[in-house]
Give the backbone structure.
Amino acid sequence: MNIISTQNLNKIKITSIPKSAYIHIPFCRRRCYYCDFPISVLGNKTNIYTSSSISEYVEVLCQEILLTPSQESTLETIFFGGGTPSLLPPSDFEKILNSLKQKFVILPNVEISLEIDPATFTLEQLKKYYELGVNRVSLGVQAFQNNLLEACGRLHRIQDIFEAIEYIRQIGINNFSLDLISGLPYQTLEDWVFSLETAIKISPNHLSCYDLVLEPVTAFGKQYKPGQNPLPNDEITAQMYRVAQQMLTDAGYQHYEISNYAKPGYQCFHNRVYWENLPYYGFGMGAASYTNQQRFTRPRNRKDYYQWVQQLSESKGLINCPKLTAIDILLETLMLRLRLKEGIKLSLIIDDFGKKTAQKILDILKPFFTKNWLEITRYDHQNDLTDLDNIEVISLSDPEGFLFSNIILATLFEKLEEKIEV
């Protein structure tokens, strides 16, 4: 007997109209050794203001935006990611924004985020981005040691980081984030502590701390094996995670997502759209969209992407791909919402997927509650997993639940797929 029916699929609240848009700017000076993102390498000598590659891409990107059925959307967040979006000339940035304004209603208080890398923009360039509406920037620092920056293929150095931060402050962009990576080759725990201490002294309103992932197609993935020198072993990387949690929360940052910390009021609202499994538009090479219960990703190289947009034009903006099933939506909802410190409300699962499914989930997760990797918030504050009506929230514990989230989610996915038929 099916626990999740097609009737449940029709009433799932996740089918609301998108209020966010992601814009992929694929250009980089060179590919970092850990990167598997869809990018186009320009080289160190390319003048971005005269690059035909950039201008052609922007033209096709704007065409895609204008071809997309808008569903009368009002955009609350716009995120320019990459690649290196700070290689985008402000005039081309303005063209993209104008295309969005032609297609959507953009709220006056919209969050417009721009990923930027040190040594890839000037003060005047950043000022123009700001004047065009950028009110949040994410600076790709990665480390505060020149030897580590060189080891992972970054072109910038420590002095470039501080110059970029000075530009941000001169212009008055208060909402800025720093990205750091732990688990890099040759990185010690002392290196990581120093990077965290330096970041805390800089005092951005947001910090993202990512653990290095060895993707097979990257230079690191081909060169190194997990846990083997010169990579820190699992024990050290786990300690790096715990140290970051302790130092940053002590410094007043809220650990609101597995890899993200923010001062009160400065969470990234765009990224929360992903973690809450809400729909969003994606535009550009390799970008993913989630609209009308459909997930699809565009081609990962420019030539194929240009052909895809041409086909989109011929089909008048219609995209033919299968809708997600109810079990797909359930698993994605669990995976994404459990990344958030606040966890997932059990009532959301019950309303969309039924009490039997909610009970199955709790049964599967029971061993992790006993390990203190998971927590429940109950209306009566009793530790009982059988009375569904009194359970308010399921969440990962911090830091141990976050640290072992892959084990929890893998078990949950495997067992749910065994126990639930659609």
About this structure: The CA atoms of residues 401 and 407 lie 9 Å apart. Residues 1-11 have pLDDT under 50 and may be disordered. The domain at 14-275 is CATH 3.20.20.70 (TIM Barrel).
